[in-house]
Design brief:
- The chain is mainly alpha-helical.
- It is 46% helix and 4% strand.
- The strands form 3 sheets. A 3-stranded antiparallel β-sheet has the order 1-7-6, with no helix packed on it. Strands 4-5-8 form a 3-stranded antiparallel β-sheet.
- β6 and β7 form a beta hairpin.
- α9 packs antiparallel against α11, α12 runs antiparallel to α13 and α16 crosses α18.
């Protein structure tokens, strides 16, 4: 929840394979060995036998250098270079640099405390001086801004937010001084830059696409809410940073833990036929799928979940709304554990997940989050004069815990009953449309000069880039469709960001709240828009990654087969091909993370995957499913040809060895898509440039400012 400033009211102008039948394509296959020879436990890629166990696939024994006649030519050099992790880091660097320039320059354009800085900046200085929040005289802001802090009293004040964000602000004043506004705001600006960097790494780990990484980073770097909240010492920017870091850690965990779990399930002799589709789900829920009870293996050590728990604790220690991040990420991890076992054919996927991994994930996330939150109150624990001590009459540490609990009850009552009218309050149901902006500072008097007309003003208005947010509404609807209809885990994770950081506010629509709270989930608005643009560019698909990008992703990790996987748990529809073995079976309830290393590293030339014997043979095993499916690599990384009927079975002429599909987009269609995507990017960034003076407190003509007020509700 949030502290509300009620004092600033001045308006302004297929087939199941047992482990014993599997052999690794990366190891020499001894054709004289029995077909039941076991594959090594550390091999992720396995090649199954044909239906006749006595006749193993001849392609598995071909030398690595043998290139079938049907193999496509090598991809263009630029296609290869632009698909490497190095390109992803370059995209990250570009977006982060732009964010730094916007956020770190002109922090002192407005040299007074603005909006809720009156609380948090003075509380931060109090923490530095007293170790807890003290009291200040009324109307002390001008004196404080002039460098005079003598008005601070040792009498404890009633602070309604945890202290972590204020400690971060205090660090800036410790390093740069209290009298300079740069000291108040520098750490907020740095955290805003870090948030852009984190979003870029999250985008790359989700999409493994430097282009989408750059687009998402630029959208966040140039959004008005993100800019204003990075240049103002208010807590919400810190919440956004810690929450985004927690999401990234969960993705990292899944990238490392999911392949280990799937390997373990393949080696487990209790796995039976994989489940797929809604009919299987109905049979399972109605207890018609009776396979007995078993627990099975787990995913092993998961340090990234521990890191996510600590980060969720830090988010909650900035604002309580960070608690929802912990809840949603925990639910996401639990669902992923269940779907992994579901796809593998686990006898009892729900109970098995709960007893094997979910409890362990809970232990790694929740207790560290709680301990981190409690530790953030160290200043309060060590200063008996702080507000709330002694109210329960207890002694010692346990008595202090009782006092802290009573303090939290007091804060909860404040947050849930705050209904004081405020000029700039807004209804959360309108936030996605940025209907009501929040004016942080408005100066239009003789002290402002330097404009052409002489009628000059400074304005800092917390308003998101209108075109990004309005387009983001459509992108969100498309994203939700991909999540619900196609069970795309990537879009599902973005949807979790909305659910964790936006949806809870809908329960408090009558409370005094503001549009600038949206800064906490603005990174997910940028991700949604980037993904929607990716659909137009062919860099994203409804089910997951384009086949070539999935191939590059897989080629970089432990699973170096160059095959693509559908991110709903089966093969990518764009890469399915029949080879006489029948249509591949799709498993929609098993969203799969690629079996890559932590950054999805792919070596140069990784997209040239169709020349490998294991690819051209069409007999490879995807990383996240025990089902053997025939796959074909896509040789056109930037224009993957969509195929399939949406249910996992390819339709029409199939794609093999780089041959074009009958339903591949035409050159004219591709041109239209590129023009549309490019127009969206250019228009959104141009709109950001147009509004930038209002987000950074620059001097401007009054008429120039008035022309930017597109909606009357922004005034």
């Amino acid at each position: 929840m949030d502290t509300t400033n009620t004092n600033h009211n001045t308006p302004r102008g297929a087939q199941t394979q047992t482990h014993d039948d599997m052999v690794s394509p990366e190891e020499h296959v001894d054709t004289s060995a029995p077909a039941s020879a076991s594959a090594p436990a550390d091999c992720e890629a396995t090649t199954p036998p044909s239906r006749d166990a006595q006749n193993p696939p001849p392609a598995a024994t071909e030398p690595e250098s043998a290139t079938p006649a049907s193999s496509p030519s090598k991809p263009r050099q630029w296609d290869t270079l632009l698909s490497t992790p190095a390109a992803g880091w370059v995209a990250t660097a570009i977006a982060t640099l732009i964010a730094a320039v916007i956020r770190l320059t002109g922090l002192d354009n407005v040299r007074t405390l603005i909006f809720d800085e009156t609380y948090y900046v003075k509380d931060a200085w109090s923490l530095l001086t007293l170790g807890y929040e003290g009291t200040w005289p009324q109307n002390y802001d001008p004196t404080f801004a002039a460098g005079d802090t003598s008005g601070l009293s040792a009498t404890a004040s009633y602070a309604v937010h945890p202290p972590t964000g204020k400690w971060i602000i205090a660090l800036g004043m410790k390093l740069f001084g209290q009298a300079d506004p740069v000291g108040w705001r520098i750490t907020t600006a740095i955290c805003g830059v870090i948030t852009v960097l984190l979003l870029c790494r999250l985008a790359y780990n989700l999409f493994h696409n430097p282009a989408l990484t750059l687009i998402a980073g630029l959208f966040l770097a140039t959004d008005g809410q993100a800019i204003v909240m990075s240049r103002t010492s208010i807590l919400d920017g810190f919440l956004a940073m810690f929450a985004l870091a927690a999401f990234l850690c969960v993705v990292k965990d899944q990238q490392s833990a999911r392949p280990r779990l799937m390997r373990a399930l393949r080696e487990w002799d209790r796995v039976t036929a994989p489940r797929s589709g809604w009919r299987d789900l109905g049979a399972f829920l109605l207890l018609r799928d009776r396979r007995g009870f078993a627990v099975g293996p787990n995913a092993g050590n998961r340090p990234w979940l521990l890191a996510a728990g600590v980060l969720c604790g830090l988010a909650g220690s900035v604002k309580w709304s960070g608690i929802y991040v912990l809840a949603l990420l925990g639910l996401f991890v639990a669902i992923r554990e269940i779907t992994a076992r579901w796809a593998a054919g686990h006898p009892s996927p729900v109970r098995g997940a709960l007893l094997a991994d979910v409890w362990w994930a809970f232990a790694l996330m929740v207790p560290p989050a709680v301990l981190t939150y409690v530790a953030s109150w160290f200043g309060w624990f060590t200063h008996p004069r702080a507000h709330g001590h002694g109210v329960t009459g207890g002694t010692g540490f346990l008595g202090a815990l009782d006092d802290l609990w009573a303090y939290h009850v007091e804060m909860w009552n404040f947050h849930t009953t705050l209904t004081a009218e405020h000029t700039y309050q807004s209804n959360p149901f309108t936030w996605l449309f940025q209907v009501r902006a929040t004016s942080f500072a408005w100066i239009n008097d003789s002290t402002i000069s330097g404009c052409h007309t002489g009628n000059c003003a400074r304005d800092i208005v917390a308003l998101g880039n209108p075109l990004l947010w309005w387009g983001g509404v459509a992108a969100l609807l498309v994203l939700l469709w991909a999540t619900a209809r196609h069970r795309n885990w990537r879009t599902g994770l973005v949807a979790c960001g909305y659910l964790a950081l936006y949806a809870p506010w809908l329960m408090y629509a009558k409370r005094t709240i503001f549009t600038f709270y949206t800064v906490a989930f603005v990174p997910f608005v940028a991700l949604a828009m980037a993904w929607a643009v990716g659909l137009l560019l062919g860099q994203a698909q409804w089910r997951g990654l384009p086949s070539a990008l999935a191939s590059a992703d897989k080629a970089g990790g432990a699973d170096r087969r160059g095959t693509s996987t559908d991110e709903a748990g089966g093969p990518d529809p764009a890469a399915i091909s029949t080879n006489g073995a029948g249509a591949a079976q799709h498993h929609p309830f098993a969203p799969a993370f690629p079996a890559s290393d932590l950054e999805g590293r792919a070596p140069a030339g990784a997209l040239d995957t169709a020349s490998r014997p294991e690819d051209t043979a069409g007999d490879t095993l995807e990383a996240d499913s025990p089902t053997t499916v025939p796959l074909a690599a896509d040789s056109a990384p930037f224009f993957p040809a969509p195929t399939g009927n949406g249910e996992g079975a390819a339709t029409g002429p199939q794609h093999l060895g780089g041959a074009a599909l009958s339903n591949a987009p035409t050159a004219d269609a591709l041109l239209v898509r590129f023009i549309a995507a490019g127009a969206i990017i250019v228009v959104v960034l141009a709109c950001a440039w147009y509004f930038l003076p209002l987000w950074t407190g620059q001097v401007l003509d009054y008429e120039f400012w008035r022309d930017h007020m597109w909606l009357p509700s922004w005034i």
